[in-house]
Design brief:
CATH topology of the largest domain: Immunoglobulin-like
Largest sheet: 2 strands, antiparallel
Order of helices and strands: EEHHEEHHH
Bound molecules: heme C, copper (II) ion
Number of strands: 4
Shape: globular
CATH architecture of the largest domain: Sandwich
Radius of gyration: 17 Å
CATH superfamily of the largest domain: Cupredoxins -  blue copper proteins
CATH class of the largest domain: Mainly Beta
Strand content: 5-15%
Number of domains: 2
Strand order of the largest sheet: 1-2
Helix content: 25-40%
Distance between the termini: 26 Å
């Protein structure tokens, strides 16, 4: 995040910390600055600085479990997610049971509240979520998520709507 003056190496398998201080509320873009493999061009990150009250409210909402499906379409989307075994790599707190591989992919409990998915590659909404699920490689070469080409359109739309609803 050049605006915050922060940069640190990440070493696989090691925990590193970086402390930065924003003087002003806002969004500060960062980018992986060390060529690290096929996905390197799509490795953006964002530091969001909020006033303490707003941050605490955000944190409390993010710590909670996933929203229950509010209608039949969203319930269908959740069922498709489980039937496709997406939970082999992704946690959705309150919905999935966890397991050894459940941290291979990002936690999706509040994926709909993120501004972007796949490290800044796509803005988050139902259409981009559907496109991502159908073919991650088309958006981010080297992504370690298999394509899901077998879903019919209605199931894919329900799945994407459910992911978007996870605010
Ligand atoms: C083999 C493990 C694996 C499986 C199975 C898998 N994913 Fe993923 N998924 C990943 C990985 C790894 C990423 C991160 C990709 C990246 O950014 O490079 C990801 C990213 C995502 C993202 C973007 C999240 C974010 O915040 O950037 C969504 C949404 C998603 N997966 C949904 C699904 C759905 C829905 C299914 C089932 C149809 C599924 N995934 C199956 C591994 C998996
Ligand atoms: Cu990189």
């Amino acid at each position: 995040m050049p605006a915050l003056g922060g940069k640190i190496d990440m070493v696989p398998g090691r925990m590193h910390g970086l402390r930065v201080q924003a003087q002003r509320e806002g969004r500060y873009r960062g980018q992986c600055a060390e060529y690290c493999g096929e996905q390197h061009a799509r490795m953006a990150l964002e530091v969001v600085a909020r006033p303490p009250d707003a941050f605490d409210a955000w944190l409390a909402a993010q710590a909670g479990p996933a929203a229950a499906p509010a209608n039949a379409q969203l319930a269908r989307g959740q069922a498709v997610f489980l039937a496709q075994r997406c939970q082999a790599c992704h946690a959705v707190r309150g919905v999935t049971a966890g397991g050894p591989g459940a941290t291979l992919g990002p936690d999706l409990t509040h994926v709909g509240s993120r501004r972007t998915i796949a490290a800044g590659t796509l803005p988050t909404h139902a259409a981009t979520l559907a496109g991502w699920v159908a073919d991650p490689q088309a958006h981010k070469a080297g992504a370690r998520m298999p394509a899901t080409r077998t879903l019919d359109g209605a199931d894919l739309r329900a799945l994407a709507a459910w992911l978007e609803s996870l605010q």
